[in-house]
């Protein structure tokens, strides 16, 4: 087995805590039906890949649900974003300082969520986090999203990496399964039961 040289981290529910059901729950409170159309999911996916702007997302939503105030929609949209525990920030900073691995962030996110991340964790802490990585890939900036194989191929090619020398950590099984098909080693982390800071204890067999 090849030695791990690069660790690729997801962001949400790996470093920053998420409340995944929150968006749907908060939209329902605003009177938006549970069965949000496939059209809205498509628009959200386009926004995640940076193919439409925040203004276009909001315009689309306002046209579909004119009785919901824009600020209420944004608040509901960002309700998924929770806190960023300091011990995880210190963990990745220590890992960066030790310089034993190339560190890459690979996150499906969007501009509104990143704004909320910065608000929740503060800009100085966000900069500390971002500066811990050799490369910092956000889906809306590279116009690709997980679990498409093309996003992993992009990261491998952009950094001249060998898949078998990479470890990818993500909380969604479909994302780690897609990466593993390319030969990338993976850890499908279970939020609430496992913590990324346990990497070298409970997952020492990967190294």
Automatic annotation (TrEMBL):
Pfam families xref list: HAD_2 (PF13419)
InterPro entries the record matches: HAD-like_sf, HAD-SF_hydro_IA, HAD_2, HAD_sf, PGP-like_dom2
Superkingdom of origin: Bacteria
Protein name: HAD family phosphatase
Organism the protein comes from: Pontimicrobium aquaticum
């Amino acid at each position: 087995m090849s030695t791990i040289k690069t660790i690729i981290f997801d962001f949400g529910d790996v470093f920053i805590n998420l409340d995944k059901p929150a968006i749907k729950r908060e939209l329902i409170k605003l009177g938006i039906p549970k069965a949000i159309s496939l059209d809205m999911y498509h628009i959200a996916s386009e926004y995640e890949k940076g193919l439409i702007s925040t203004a276009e997302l909001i315009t689309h939503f306002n046209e579909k649900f004119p009785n919901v105030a824009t600020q209420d929609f944004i608040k509901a949209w960002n309700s998924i974003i929770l806190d960023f525990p300091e011990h995880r920030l210190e963990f990745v900073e220590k890992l960066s300082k030790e310089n034993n691995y190339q560190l890459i962030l690979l996150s499906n996110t969007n501009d509104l969520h990143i704004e909320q991340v910065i608000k929740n964790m503060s800009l100085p802490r966000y900069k500390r986090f971002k500066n811990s990585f050799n490369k910092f890939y956000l889906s809306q900036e590279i116009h690709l999203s997980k679990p498409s194989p093309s996003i992993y191929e992009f990261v491998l090619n952009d950094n001249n990496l060998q898949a078998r020398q990479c470890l990818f950590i993500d909380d969604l099984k479909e994302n780690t399964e897609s990466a593993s098909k390319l030969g990338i080693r993976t850890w499908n982390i279970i939020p609430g039961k496992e913590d990324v800071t346990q990497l070298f204890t409970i997952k020492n067999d990967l190294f």
